[in-house]
Automatic annotation (TrEMBL):
Catalytic activity, EC: 4.2.1.-
Recorded coiled-coil stretches: none
Designated name of the protein: 2-vinyl bacteriochlorophyllide hydratase
Membrane-crossing residue ranges in chain numbering: 27-51, 63-85, 97-118, 130-149
Length: 167
């Protein structure tokens, strides 16, 4: 095996065999697998409603409801994701394999919570609330990309492990 290839194999080493077994056996993996695409669909609908409001001034209520729903779906996936991380890695957050994803998730949660604060206090007007939501959504897109990258790395690791087992 060449030096470069050995280094690449280390990069995709997200799970030990025991962590992979726990990941594959826990119901929380299925929960995450259902919630992640659900959250993305809610995000897309909400993004459309927010942009519509910002462009036309119409549909504030629909946009607001969609952002609140998106925020609660986010909270749900974050709590269940922390449980998943505890089952798989032994810590609720900031396990080595997902440290930076969890760090960025804190920004995503902060921005969504800031939106709720702005909505509930009225300290920020409707347009400002929508811009906070857009900032939260931009952070969410980056965070989702981080997790998709890790999913890809996990699949590559699985393929590599199967190839090694067959060799």
């Amino acid at each position: 095996m060449s030096e470069g290839r050995g280094t690449a194999a280390k990069v995709v080493q997200l799970y030990t065999p025991e962590e992979r077994r726990r990941r594959d056996e826990t119901v929380w993996t299925v929960v995450q697998g259902v919630l992640a695409p659900l959250q993305f669909v809610v995000f897309l609908v909400s993004l459309g409603l927010v942009v519509r409001y910002l462009l036309t001034g119409a549909g504030y209520e629909a946009a607001t409801i969609s952002i609140v729903v998106k925020t609660f779906v986010l909270y749900t996936i974050m709590v269940t994701g922390a449980i998943w991380e505890k089952v798989v890695f032994g810590k609720y957050l900031f396990a080595k394999a997902f440290f930076w994803e969890d760090v960025f998730s804190m920004l995503v949660i902060f921005l969504h919570t800031l939106y709720l604060w702005a909505l509930l206090t009225g300290n920020v007007g409707p347009t400002g609330q929508m811009f906070i939501a857009l900032a939260a959504y931009a952070a969410y897109i980056i965070n989702a990309a981080q997790f998709l990258w890790k999913l890809r790395m996990a699949r590559l690791q699985g393929q590599s492990d199967q190839a090694e087992a067959m060799a």
